[in-house]
Amino acid sequence: MKIRTITTGISLQSSVDEDKIKKASEFNQNAKAFFEQNGYEVQEPRIASNSWEEYLHGLKDEEVVREIQKIEKICREQDAGFFNIGYAGTPSKIKIIPGIIKNTSITIFCSSKIGDVKSGINFENIKASAKAIKQISEETGNGCGNLRFCAWANCPPGIPFFPAAYHEGETSFSIGFECSDLVMKAFSKSTNLIEAEENLKAIFEEELGKAAELAEEVSRKYKIKYAGIDSSLAPSLDKNESIAFAYEKLGIGRFGHPGTLAISAVITRVLKSLEVKTCGYSGLMLPVCEDFGLVERASEGTYNLTDLLLYSAVCGCGLDTVPVPGDVPVETIEAILLDTAALAIKLDKPLSARLFPIPGKNAGEMTEFNSPYLIDCKILKV
């Protein structure tokens, strides 16, 4: 089990609040060192802000991009790692996002809000978000820019995982793990779903309980609020820790075959029942291009995009890093986002969609990401 992220949330009043960004970065480095001293491998710490609409209001489109470039520069100078500028909640702001992605580096992430339980589906934001996804794919290398953008519905503040992360209120931190190895361990010694659930719960209770105690200690030491652990099961790029291959240890069949939905429900039930302080999604993640086994099964055609939406009904994230043909119509992307939002609102759960239209590529062809964060995969049909 690795710590995927220590994410510190801050509320900005302007784009040049360098002191607040500096303090968050210093805390992240201290927290990273503390966890490493206690035996954890920690990946890139992250900072998430409140919605950029709040601290960049009243500016022209090109001025917004320049202000975000200033944030990027501060982050680089402070060695702050990844920075999420929060979400855009209006069509006029969502349309700026392709320019933000095009004119910044991997440092900057963002998202759009397409609905919640209180206000329902935001159809105009869905239209704007679909156009943004399409434009980003056409203006960034191999469509990779959409790694840094997603559209979400019903997501709360305090999610540590990017790009859906955003913050509200006083400064706080949360933790997200890369822990598919725990599922592999639990399922490898299980002969049925009942044993699998019991073994998985015991392992997660033990491991996350240890981490939670350390997080509370960090909070007391540095006097920064601890928001909790996002217990979501984020996978690994390591073939031996694939979540898809972990499913198959139960002998029910390949990932995507009948039984996949039931296993997804078991995992999610465990993640929602843990006796630790949780936040964010706290559910199963199935990011296609971030898991070796998911890539392999997608290439074999054992599941498709509709199946992933079905699994989202019982898991935690939605559609994540899903490669689709480059010529996918904007209207089709709209429909996918609409389905995601409808599911999130009907079930009152957080779901997001991070889609990768791949320019010049058709369904069944391979992506060519050339990215340390993604595994190349056959493009799914839509």
For this entry, give a set of tags:
alpha/beta, 382 residues, 42% helix, two-stranded antiparallel sheet, Anaerobic Ribonucleotide-triphosphate Reductase Large Chain
Give a structural overview:
With 382 residues, the chain is α/β, with parallel strands linked by helices. It has a domain at 2-153: Anaerobic Ribonucleotide-triphosphate Reductase Large Chain (Alpha-Beta Barrel), CATH 3.20.70.20. Helix content is 42%, strand content 18%. Strands 9-8-1-2-3-4-7-11-10 form a nine-stranded mixed beta sheet. A two-stranded antiparallel ribbon has the order 5-6. A hairpin with a 3-residue loop joins strand 5 (115-116) and strand 6 (120-121). Helix 1 packs across helix 8, helix 6 (123-139) crosses helix 13 (330-347) and helix 7 packs antiparallel against helix 8. The longest helix has 30 residues, at 193-222. It is globular and about 60 Å long. It starts with a strand and ends in a 24-residue tail after the last strand. 53% of the residues are buried.
